[in-house]
Design a protein that fits this description.
6-stranded mixed sheet, 7 helices, alpha/beta, globular, single chain
Length: about 325
């Protein structure tokens, strides 16, 4: 008797075709479908005027990404009071000039920055399924994994020098202050990237600067140890990136992984973090780039965020 393979073969072909369409959409359209999100956060002291804070994150610039560069340049038209860059600017060791060109118009505004792992090291080709395995085993980055070996070293010093020359404030394990138009003084406390164990909270401990008009905390990867430390010391707002919003999400469900130890419910956007009965607002940017070896996004378009900080009720 002849075996009947017609229906299974058609189903298999259909699944393959659907997968190909999904990959084409994720790589060809959504990864380049840049969005601006707008969020209002009630964190300022009473009587203080609203502040417009533009957060850019996880650019992961690869040479030749003209559309991304033009979109980033266009964000200067928002005329923010402050720009916060939460790291992972590079995905190409030759990408520093293009990052500086893309962010050039924004560097006309006051800004602060921290670095992420991909500012220091180039990405490695890896199976995306490893993120699921590492999540199941409680391993993330160098936090539980063996140190990276044979990685490409990115020229982060050139990036730092360009940001510093523009007057942006580096916050890698550092505290600092900026004066905005109108005389407002903002204080910042930042950490180097916890994903590769470069964070040194003991160097910046002490809580918000009470002599400033407002204080906020900045870190690349939202690991719980960093969020706990900032919240326990009383910072009203923490800004972070790193997660890519999950990057590959399931519609109507959300992210499967965060690439750190934060839960998937807070993988992107505005939420809160609680520690020792204190609460901070937390904003995690989904970022506007991808690892150069997995240049796809699905149900998670690339973004920057304009946060309008307003007075508390």
């Amino acid at each position: 008797m002849r075996a009947r393979y017609g229906l299974p073969l058609k189903i298999g072909a259909g699944v393959t075709a659907l997968g190909a369409v999904g990959i084409a959409y994720a790589a060809g359209f959504e990864a380049r479908s840049f969005r601006l999100r707008r969020v209002t956060v009630p964190v300022l002291p009473r009587g203080m005027r609203p502040l417009r804070v533009l957060q850019v994150s996880d650019i992961h610039m690869v040479c030749g990404q003209r559309k991304k560069r033009a979109w980033l340049q266009s964000l200067a038209g928002l005329r923010p009071d402050l720009v916060v860059n939460t790291g992972d600017n590079l995905s190409d060791p030759n990408g520093v000039p293009e990052v500086v060109d893309a962010l050039g118009p924004l560097m006309e505004y006051p800004g602060v920055y921290v670095f992420g792992s991909n500012d220091y090291y180039g990405p490695k080709l890896r199976n995306p399924a490893r993120y699921l395995f590492e999540k199941a085993q409680g391993r993330h980055g160098l936090n539980g994994n063996a140190p990276a070996v044979g990685v490409v070293h990115n020229p982060w010093e050139g990036l730092r020098d360009a940001f510093d020359a523009a007057g942006w404030l580096g916050l890698n394990n550092t505290r600092g202050r900026l004066k905005l138009d109108g005389g407002l003084e903002l204080a910042f406390t930042g950490l180097d990237d916890p994903h590769i164990k470069r964070d040194r909270y003991e160097k910046v401990a002490g809580g918000p600067d009470k002599t400033a008009d407002f204080s906020m905390a900045v870190v690349h990867a939202p690991y719980l140890r960093s969020l706990d430390a900032f919240t326990t010391e009383g910072y009203p707002l923490i800004l972070a990136g790193h997660t890519h919003g999950g990057q590959l999400c399931i519609p109507f469900y959300g992210a499967l992984v965060t690439n750190c130890d934060i839960d998937t419910d807070r993988v992107k956007g505005l939420s809160t973090h609680e520690s020792d009965c204190l609460v901070s607002y937390l904003h995690v940017s989904a970022g506007c780039g991808t690892n150069r070896y997995t240049p796809v996004r699905f149900a998670c378009p690339p973004e920057a965020t304009l946060l309008t900080l307003v007075a508390r009720d």
